[in-house]
Amino acid sequence: MKKKVVKIGAVIVHYGDRSNTNECINSLLKNKDSNIDLKLYLVDNDSLNRFATEKNKNIKYFASNRNLGFSGGVNIGIKEALKDKCSYILLINNDAVIKKHFFKHLLPYFKIKNVGMVSPVITYYDNPEVIWCANGYLNKRFVYSTFPYMGKRLAEANLPDPIEADFGAASLLVDSEVFRKIGFFKEKYFLYVEDVEFCLRAKKAGYRIVYSSKPLVLHKVSASAGIKGGNMLNSRAAFFYARNFFILIRDNRQSFNIITAFIGQTFIRLPFYIFLRCASLAAVFSYLRGYYFGLIYFLTGKLMSY
To answer: Are 216 and 98 in contact (CB under 8 A)?
Structure first.
């Protein structure tokens, strides 16, 4: 009996190093199993460093006149994939590389009741035996993200399968029905935390987010932000990391305790990122600026940009 062909769209937002985007694209194009009809949607957010791509029937290219951020860029690709009637849409960072049989392994998880999004375990590109992300949890009392398996070796992690999560990161395969039901990414976030907000909406709509225990993605970690291989923040990333959780809290205040959420941003996240995650003094000042702008949004609803 002939296997049913599954139409999948993979959305990549290009910004920064073209070699990262090229490696990501090549890993996807090599992943075409016989029953997978894969189309790539490449959104070029970098007007100063355009990604020159050769004509390829499997790639649709969109050049933005300005940097729309990840949320704005990825929405362009998602909408095009929906127009093309893709059944599933992969959202993948341009500094990530997927392994063989990625789709073949992940698609069966959608047969599990209410699963709307699936991610594999993601390991470090330069250290593939160490986990970068095997789930994402949101502490709802103090409103910060946690990654319990980050830094653990695959051989010692003893991962369950599937792994329940609150959100996905860097590589997330989504049932197209999720977008039709809850909409797209909120573009006010621009960069970072938009995935947390989107997944929070999905869970409220009754969808589950799970990780496969199989390591199928290598991530260069922050390469698109200019810092390859670590979890450190440059100035731009630090600003959005600080500001955007305040947006999440105010816009979803029915889901959080406002007082404990404020405590979490001020006495947990702020010292953690300033002392342990900012890559430079400039990043520290940028985080503080983002915190201040976030606090203004938290109190007044006025959005101030980078």
So the answer is: yes
Given a contact cutoff of 8 angstroms between Cβ atoms, the answer to whether 23 and 51 are in contact is no
Q: Domain segments of the chain: what residues?
A: 6-225, 235-300
Fold of 6-225: Spore Coat Polysaccharide Biosynthesis Protein SpsA; Chain A (3.90.550)
Residue 290: name the closest of 200, 280, 267, 298 by CA.
Answer: 298
What CA–CA distance (Å, rounded) separates 185 from 64? Answer: 17
The alpha carbons of the chain give a radius of gyration, in whole angstroms, of 19
Strands (E), the chain: 6-14, 36-44, 59-63, 88-92, 96-98, 115-124, 127-133, 137-139, 144-146, 163-165, 171-175, 208-219
In order along its 306 residues, the chain shows pLDDT tens digits of 567 899 999 999 998 888 999 999 999 999 878 899 999 999 998 766 777 666 788 999 999 888 999 999 999 999 999 999 999 999 999 999 999 999 999 999 999 999 999 999 999 999 999 999 999 999 999 999 999 999 999 999 999 999 999 999 899 999 999 999 999 999 999 999 999 999 999 999 999 999 999 999 999 985 454 444 468 999 999 999 999 999 999 999 999 999 999 999 999 999 999 999 999 999 999 999 999 999 999 999 999 998
Token couple for 120? 């594999």
Q: pTM of this prediction?
A: 0.94
CB contact set of 175 (below 8 Å; sequence gap of 6+): 87, 88, 110, 115, 116, 117, 207
User: Nearest Cα to 5, choosing from 32, 24, 25?
Assistant: 32
